[in-house]
Amino acid sequence: MSPAKPDMGQSQHNALQPGTIASGDTSANNADRVTIEDVAAIAKKVDAGFEDGWIAGREARVFKSPYRTLSAKDKAQFALAYHDFLEPFHQDLGNNLATYVPYRTRAAFARKYWLASSSGEKFKNEKEKYQIAWMHESLLDGSELWWRAAEKRFGNKIDSVLALVHDTEQNMVSKYMEDEKTEGTFSSQMSDKSVKPESVN
Asked: Whole-model pTM?
């Protein structure tokens, strides 16, 4: 008899639930939850090296914003908070791309989070283009850190369908997509629309 898969509920990706910062559920002894320790361990490992094919097996883990300077714990805390934020939306991207949470909603969450974080003053004092890059990088990296921690914790309980759903979401976020048909750009996130992605060094 094959091992039971995590309860899929209505959302294939978000059914694998992390420990929540709000509840303080960070115990590594809870086998049914991805914890902050799980994610921080992944972040610490990848921060120490170079990861090719990090996003959807394609993009390398390279950051242009000050997000790169944050500690593994800071990145892990955001990853858990972001996952918990998305969970109530019940995305079901394996069956319906229309359930995708719009990029603007994700970006608003990231902005609010970083402004309220211990790095808030640093974030607030950055030029807008670096704030946008920081938010975008943290959304992609946070999701990937949580996913890699889930893969390690749940092992073969995660099937190819779940992996495909995760990559689909990451691809949509990487393109600043508002819905399944509408792609955005870096410059479209700016109040100054003349700023180009290559301007962020």
From this structure: 0.82
